[in-house]
Amino acid sequence: MSEELTKVPESKGSHAKRKVFVKTYGCQMNVYDSARMTDALTSDGYEETSDLADADLVLINTCHIREKAAEKVYSQLGRLREMKKSRQERGREFIIGVTGCVAQAEGDEILRREKSVDLVMGPQAYHRLPEALKKVRESGPSVDTDYAIEDKFEHLPAQNRKSVQARGVSAFLTVQEGCDKFCTFCVVPYTRGSEVSRPLAQIMDEARQLVEAGVREITLLGQNVNAWHGADGNGNEAGLGMLLEQLSQIEGLARLRYTTSHPRDMDDGLIAAHATNPKLMPYLHLPVQAGSDRILKAMNRKHTASDYIALIKRIRAANPDLALSGDFIVGFPGETDEDFEETMRLIEEVNYAQAFSFKYSPRPGTPGADMPDHVPEDVKSARLERLQALLIKQQREFAQNCVGREIDLLLEKPGRMEGQLVGRSPWLQSVIIDTKTSKIGDNIKIGDIIRVRITEAGPNSLFAEFAEA
Ligand code: SAH
Ligand code: SF4
Ligand code: F3S
């Protein structure tokens, strides 16, 4: 690599603020991380831009979960390489950074594959981002995939109030990160490191700041969010149910959610919270992946299909109005037609309001990739199609059953058509209300929770009218 290419020329016009463009792939935690990185950079003199052509720094926050997700990064980087070339010809700074789970998994391999990259940074190093950029400017490419011994959250600057406001009334808050479960298909334990819970006081502070900036709904995030544990005010260890209870004391915070949960970590306190905590929304994303005990064992999920069904029964007993969501993988190595039928039977029995489903994608370094009897692609596709048809049918039925019900709607944003407002139902559906035809008060604004009646269920959203209290 030549000197000219490794060293980044300084921006012209030093008084103008450098601009950062962040592109986010993957899960909600990456969305949250992108926000925290952006805020760290804005505290360090950057300005956020949504226009790539305007950027001096581009961060690609990547996902490694399936092959397709990971490969996207390189096609994106190919396009950025061209941009960088033309920028450098004009003597302008253009730094390309790769963050997130591909960065953690592939490290300096990324620099070898794509020479235009200046910075590779894993999720545990984000608090060192401003420092790493300085290093890039001074001495060329930098790779940081160390698992920090220090708590990155203690070192990241607080979320920027203006940015929080711009992001809307519903916010994410990471409370737990990493995973020790090692499901045999999954890269997350390798990309996010081992399971860590953020301390209660730190979470409470961040939640209060979000609410003071106007946030009404907080979704707690973690790869295994329900494994969160920490000391309560009296120094006793407690789980997510306690954390939700503490958060629900924050005045002005209207709604709480959490994702993603593992069936093995649904403890009694958390199940009870679904019965007793009125701010906790009646929605639970509880992935099961498969319905065959043989496959669940091979996946190292450490529970059976009937354990899962029994757990669902307990959760529904706590709150019969709860909507369930799940994740499914079809075509895990060794999955037979009969195994797949068992997944279909489980779905029939549980009845999901929402779900995500994927063809198994072998990931380098995971035990699943080396297992025998990989399922042919066409068989995976056929299974996925049947599975999704069933899940979509259930989702539509769930939506249809909402018609006629009165619900509380959290208004999130203006709709696409004039006069429309879009909000979220307690069950996470998007609900559209027409302020012109519905007698809605003039003083109603984004962030308000209004009482509406569902009038119609469309394929992607529900429609509602204002209901008199
Ligand atoms: N922590 C969560 C899952 C995070 S990954 C949990 O334990 O459930 C999100 C989803 O991606 C998983 O639930 C799984 O359905 C899917 N997934 C993960 N690895 C995959 C792979 N190798 N191929 C296909 N889908 C995968
Ligand atoms: Fe991946 Fe399993 Fe951990 Fe979820 S519990 S993040 S699927 S290893
Ligand atoms: Fe993807 Fe990493 Fe999230 S692999 S799903 S971005 S934890």
Overall description:
By secondary structure, the chain is an alpha/beta fold. The chain has 16 helices and 21 strands. The strands form 6 sheets. The chain has a 6-stranded parallel beta sheet, sandwiched between helices. Strand 17 and strand 18 form a beta hairpin. It binds S-adenosyl-L-homocysteine, iron/sulfur cluster and FE3-S4 cluster (F3S). S-adenosyl-L-homocysteine binds next to strand 15.
Describe this protein with a few key phrases.
binds FE3-S4 cluster; globular; binds iron/sulfur cluster; binds S-adenosyl-L-homocysteine; five-stranded mixed barrel; single chain; 21 strands
Radius of gyration: 23 Å
Q: Outline, from the CA principal axes?
A: globular
- Residue share in helix: 25-40%
The major sheet is characterized as: 6 strands, parallel
Q: How would you state the average pLDDT, rounded?
A: 94
In order across it, which strands form the biggest sheet?
Answer: 2-1-3-4-5-6
- Tell me which ligands are bound: S-adenosyl-L-homocysteine, iron/sulfur cluster, FE3-S4 cluster
Runs in which pLDDT lies below 50 for 5 or more consecutive residues are 1-13
The chain-level structural class is alpha/beta
- Count the E strands: 21
Binned strand content: 15-25%
N- to C-terminal distance: 68 Å
Helical stretch tally: 16
